[in-house]
Automatic annotation (TrEMBL):
InterPro entries: NT_sf. This is Uncharacterized protein. It comes from the Eukaryota.
Amino acid sequence: ECLQVFVPLAHAMGVGKLMWDLEDISFRVLFPESYAAVEEWHSLMGSRCEATLESSARTLRGKLMLSGLLKEYTVGFDVSGRTKNLFSTFKKVLKGNKKREEVLDIVGMRVILNVEEKYRHN
């Protein structure tokens, strides 16, 4: 019920953190052995992924701050990142018939540009 009703509802409401938490809780309840295996691997990878994510975000912020084109057309930007949640990793493994070690996109980054008003198309 949670995966079929509340997760899509959280997604539709734009509450990503809640959606990921609900997915992970459902995953833990429905597939405890798979959850434990993915959680163990994820925690081993987690610190390395977090360090990579922080380093990459810092480097990207630095490069963006030096961009003349970006300075000309924007009034600011935001760089954020996250680690893929456990259920999402599990789905990748199942859909792609992969081993968890073959899931290469465990982290993701997002860049949001605040474009100057005069360049926006309404």
